[in-house]
Amino acid sequence: MVEYQQVKVAEVIQETAEAVSIVFDATMDYRPGQFLTLRCGPVARCYSLSSSPHVDDRPQVTVKRIPDGYGSAWVCDNVRAGTVLDILPPAGIFSPSSLDDNLLLFAGGSGITPVISIIKSALTQGSGRVVLLYANRDESSVIFASRLRELADQYPDRFMVIHWLESLQGLPTPRHLTALKPFTGFQSFLCGPAPFMDVVSQFLKSMGVPRDRIHVERFISLSGNPFEETVEEPAEGDEATVEVDLDGEEYTFPWPRNKKLLDLLLEKGVQAPYSCREGACSACACRIEQGEVKMLQNEILDQEDIDDGIVLACQSLPVTDTVKITYT
């Protein structure tokens, strides 16, 4: 049975002509940069939490209307104060391991939503510097413009905002970003449209930034609906053995060759993290410490992640007889 909450909307805030923030009348345990999966009519969509667990009294997600985007249009057109929404628990790994780190943040358009959660958390709870490059089509498209100004005024020695407006400056290129070279020793976080993140990734790699200091969040629409019950086919064939380390607890199970790892863990009562269940988010990411698996689908991990042993539990089947994994 899919476990989800029904949460009442306390307020809808019009952030720009195209973006709204949905404030929930609820308390949640989440980390800066995580997201929620919402039932949007007959579909499900993942939206980042733009609130900070350290600053804001109530959690909120921010949704930007996308041309031909069913989920965002449904939210913007139908959700009002008093609406009750079905949501899955907070998920995602786009979150600093320490709020005291120096942070170099890149956001494009609605990619600011998880980034501002990180900014508010780091400035109020951490001690490091925070540098943000925020790219938008034009000035009217800048989400949280006034809040960013307030934070820059409040933390002038720790927070720097650089706005990039396509209408004035054109599309950014790696060469345009060289002014940020002094900050490339910081932990880098990227979120936004794919072309924007490609440019930023090229710049960071050209500066020799190690892969483990580059953190990427991608927005991908779900083709399935994780709120709906799935019919499990009976396991067939021989079995492997999987050893799992999750939150300090260790488990060992027989692993049928045709059963996905996440399905096995949930079936065994292990509270493994997940959200989309179709390889389009990073919520179920784990690391292979021994053995080998194959992923049936992957739309979020890049080759460097895979080379580091990161896999998606919701899409992984065993290849070797013994597999050891850890959730980090």
From TrEMBL:
**Where does the source fall among the domains of life?**
Bacteria
- MF (Gene Ontology): 2 iron, 2 sulfur cluster binding; flavin adenine dinucleotide binding; metal ion binding; monooxygenase activity
Q: Where is the FAD-binding FR-type domain?
A: 2-97
Instruction: Domain (2Fe-2S ferredoxin-type): give its ranges.
Output: 240-328
Keywords in alphabetical order: 2Fe-2S, FAD, Flavoprotein, Iron, Iron-sulfur, Metal-binding, Monooxygenase, Oxidoreductase
The yes or no answer to whether the keyword Lyase is present is no
Cofactor needs: FAD
Question: Any idea what this protein is called?
Answer: 3-ketosteroid 9alpha-monooxygenase subunit B
| Organism lineage string | Bacteria, Bacillati, Actinomycetota, Actinomycetes, Pseudonocardiales
